[in-house]
Request: fold
Amino acid sequence: MFLFDREQDVYDIGGVKVGGQPGEYATVLCGTIFYAKHYLVEDADKGIFDKKAAEEVINKQDEFSDLTGNPCMMQIFSESPEAMEKEIAFCTEKSDSPFLIDSTVAEAKMAGLKYSDEVGLTERAVYNSINISCSEEELEIIKNSKLEAAIVLAFNPKDSTVAGKIDLLETGAGVFDKGLVQLARDLGVTKQMCDPATLPLGAGCGSSVASGFAVKSKFGIAVGLGIHNAPSAWTWLKGFRKEHAERIPDPARPGKQKWSGMGAEVFHLCDVASNVIPPLLGQDFVLYGPIENAQTVFPLVGMVDMIVSEGNTAEHELEAKGDHPITKMGA
Reply:
């Protein structure tokens, strides 16, 4: 195991600690709810969803967070401003955990941030994300809010290497007149969670993973990945699933189907198992994908956290802090 020479930032976001040296704090696990085609969503634009099913998956994530010692966040993915407000209101009523404001629609994210400010939820909010596609309007809304925490997305379309990501964070890579790290600070974002941007296998995934070392070494900020997106976009794996699985009726969703068989099992295994990579390499959080995978992801990542903590306690006298899997799941 290893430690970083540079002092590492540790942030408190809604009572959850994220950052630090490998093995110091438990990996923060963020499960996505209301994502595209999520089985519990009935009308994505209007924010209509199965409230019972949504509460069940939120409670399951909280349950496994308590069980393993891995803190959690809810990654709320919404399709419209209307949906975003409804979904934030629901999720924050059902759980005290922090939440990510996330969407592919900038207006939805801006609406979510304004709403969080208005109802006093900003200290639990993480904006996802500050990136090269942010408009002046979006940046201005972030600046004028009470927001302190955001994901800084190090996606550099001109250079997907580690050097390209560091260039974007340090200088702006010709897109901004300053690096994203300083830009975020100037906007009032003092709690920065850097996502180096997971690219597909064979198209930059290795550099996405490797860049975590460089980001933490240079800036000392928290780092994590949505690494499950790599196997999810893996052409070979999708073909294997299709060839060795079948679509069958889903008893949990009348009128819907689900994948079943060996292909589906292998796909799910690769999707879930990928989440061990960031913590094993000293990173601080994982955007692990569908929130309903909590019962498999939390024990798996908790096991890795125990290994990392045990190694750094023995080799570097670094003791784990807080409710860590090494204390919650130890023999």
